[in-house]
């Protein structure tokens, strides 16, 4: 009955973003990487991997879902 994101249109972007997250997650979480240096690189790599495309697709689906609720 609630919103459910269909990621089938952005599978490649989702995979690429997961790979970027895996690359940085442990180092950022445990303080091995300096956040001042690593976070800008992390964000750049997420954008290059298609993060904005994923966000746009999810927003589009959410907007359509909400429009159908009225």
Proportion of residues in helical segments: over 70%
Output the radius of gyration. Answer: 15 Å
Q: Total number of helical segments?
A: 3
Oligomer: single chain
The best one-word shape is elongated
Mind summarizing the main beta sheet?
A: none
Order of helices and strands: HHH
Average pLDDT, rounded to a whole number, is 96
Helix- and strand-based class? Answer: mainly alpha
- How many beta-strand elements? 0
Strand content: under 5%
Distance between the termini: 14 Å
Poorly predicted ranges: none
Structural write-up:
There is one protein chain. This protein has a domain at 35-70. Helix content is 74%, strand content 0%. The chain has helices spanning 11-29, 35-49, 51-68. The longest helix is centred in the N-terminal third of the chain and has 19 residues, at 11-29. α1 (11-29) runs antiparallel to α2 (35-49). It has three helices and no strands. The mean pLDDT is 96. The protein has 70 residues and is an all-alpha fold. The two termini are 14 Å apart. The protein is elongated.
